[in-house]
Specification:
It is a single chain. The chain is α/β, with parallel strands linked by helices and about 200 residues long. The chain contains eight helices and nine strands. The protein has one domain: Rossmann fold (3-Layer(aba) Sandwich), CATH 3.40.50. Helix content is about 35%, strand content about 15%. β1, α1 and β2 form a beta-alpha-beta unit. The two termini are about 30 Å apart.
């Protein structure tokens, strides 16, 4: 399976490299590509992994792409992404982007990955080690199931990350904000409201 990774170069999201670092037959785009070229690259790959910082409007370019403006993945990429079923949208509030456009794939709401984000959500006493454990565990668990069908990946990620969430408050917060979106309703298309 040919995989395209769109992960704007940004030290604060380096932990997400663990998701795709061991994949074979991958193209990783971190900067310098035009939106026109990126659209062609998306169309020529089987699986798409988008990760970094973002908002409901898309994946932020963080100044790494010359003609992209604020976002490298935005409404202009939707038609190219529409037929991709093995897609990961790992940026804050990607769930709103995915839902608005009826896309398929693993996505999330707000995920805490830094101390300042933890403070924004009232985790005043959290240690960096707790955040790092959540970050690294999430990436390694997703990586472990990358070659499974996306429904199976989602279930297995929930099981394993859910175990960490029983003891790690950041993982608990993040766990409740992971989603799988599919075009037709299925047993897996739901918001997780509790730890398994």
């Amino acid at each position: 399976m040919k995989t395209l990774v769109v992960h704007p170069d940004d030290r604060s999201t380096d932990f997400l490299k663990g998701i795709y670092s061991d994949l074979q037959d991958k193209t990783v785009i971190t900067n310098g590509v035009s939106k026109t070229q990126l659209r062609k690259d998306i169309e020529n790959h089987d699986r798409i992994i988008c990760c970094g910082h973002g908002s409901p409007m898309g994946l932020l370019s963080v100044g790494q792409f010359p003609d992209s403006g604020l976002y490298i993945i935005d409404d202009s990429m939707v038609e190219s992404l529409r037929n991709k079923s093995n897609t990961l949208y790992i940026w804050c509030y990607s769930n709103e982007f995915v839902q608005r456009h009826g896309l398929t794939g693993l996505n999330c709401q707000m995920l805490i990955s830094s101390v300042d984000e933890a403070w924004m959500y009232g985790f005043w006493d959290v240690e960096w080690d707790t955040i790092r454990e959540s970050n690294e565990s999430f990436s390694s668990i997703v990586a472990k199931y990358m070659n499974e069908p996306i429904e199976i990946m989602y279930i297995e990620v929930l099981k394993e990350y859910g175990e960490l969430a029983k003891a790690n408050p950041i993982a608990t917060f993040n766990f409740k904000r992971l989603y799988l979106s599919q075009p037709q309703p299925s047993a897996y298309s739901h918001k997780v409201g509790k730890i398994l």
